[in-house]
Every structure is written in C-alpha cells, then in structure tokens.
Design brief:
It comes from Roseibium limicola. By secondary structure, this protein is of the alpha/beta class. Helices cover about 20% and strands about 20% of the residues. The mean pLDDT is about 85.
C-alpha cells in the first residue's frame, strides 16, 4: 500500500480502549500512534494491546492539540458524528493521513475539529466504542488503498481476478534485444 498513516485519539481515559486501538493500528500497519490530552493514568502499553505495539511503532503523547507535530504533508482526518462529516464509504483517503478519534463518552474538541483537514463519520445509528471505530476506519483505508480484486456485485468472490504485476527486462526503442534481459 502506498503512503503512510497514523491513528490516535484525543482525551482517552480507559486503558482497554487505548490498548484495543493500538493493537488495531499495529495490525493494519500504521506508521505511528498518538494520543492528545489523554488521561495521565494511562500506561504506555495496556494489557489489552496484546500485540505489544509500542515495540513496533512509535507512540507520541501530546498534552494538547497545539502541541501536535504531524509530518509535513500529513492530513489530519477527524472521526466524528457531525452534520457536515463525510460518510466513510464515500471518503477518499489521503495517502499521508493521521486519523484521530474522540474520547469515550465525548466528542473531538472544537480545537481538534478546527485543525482537521477532513471529518468523516461511520454511518451508524449511534456512537460506537472508540477501538471498534478505529478498526473500521483502518479497514476502510486498507480496502480503499490496497491492491485487491474488484468487489463482486453479487454474493461471493470476485468474478475477475486482478492480474499480478509482471516486471519485464529492459526494452530497446529500436526493437533490438538488449543483452541480459532474458531474451538472448
């Protein structure tokens, strides 16, 4: 998959949610994980992070939105149920993105929403667990930007398999066989 991405949360207070979100970030191949204004009692590696993700991806803990330092070109994508948020199935994921989710029993702060380049929502009837929401967002990114067969329009697997990329040898503009390209 091209590009890079990170996932994080603002104002988390429960270790189990932090661990679940970190584990999903690690499983989907995130390049780093972050928290903003997280509860001070949260440890760096909760027991619910069974993949022990801090040993595999950097963890940044910023005290406030103003302290966040994302890489140049990285677009911040807020995940929040707002009127003007883009429905996740219609969203075009940026190649360089940091996805930020809100706290348990709360929403992203007005400061965070103002900093976001995009705001998306998962089309559910009500809010879902932050770790579950993170896994859904990351799955959607993986599905949208990964190289997979086209989804079938009917039940079952794809009708046509995506052809594997084949790298050939050098090609001469004159049509001659180039020594060492496997054609000699």
């Amino acid at each position: 998959m091209r590009g890079y991405f990170a996932v994080g949360a603002e104002g988390l207070s429960k270790k189990i949610n932090l661990g679940g979100l970190m584990r999903s970030a690690h499983a989907f191949g995130a390049n780093f994980f972050f928290t903003v204004d997280a509860d001070k009692t949260l440890g760096r590696s909760p027991a619910s992070d069974t993949s022990k993700s801090p040993g595999h991806l950097p963890l940044f803990s910023w005290p406030s939105v103003d302290d966040m330092e994302l890489p140049r070109g990285c677009q911040l994508v807020g995940v929040e149920l707002t009127e003007d948020a883009i429905d996740l199935p219609s969203f075009g994921h940026p190649l360089q993105a940091a996805y930020v989710l809100g706290p348990e029993r709360g929403s992203l702060s007005p400061q965070m929403l103002a900093r976001c380049d995009h705001v998306v929502k998962i089309p559910t009837k009500f809010c879902i667990n932050v770790a579950t929401a993170g896994a859904i967002i990351l799955y959607d990114r993986h599905r949208a930007l990964g190289r997979y067969d086209d989804r079938s329009l009917t039940a079952g697997g794809p009708a046509l398999k995506r052809q594997k990329h084949v790298q050939g040898g050098p090609i001469s503009r004159t049509g001659r066989i180039v020594p060492g390209n496997g054609q000699d």
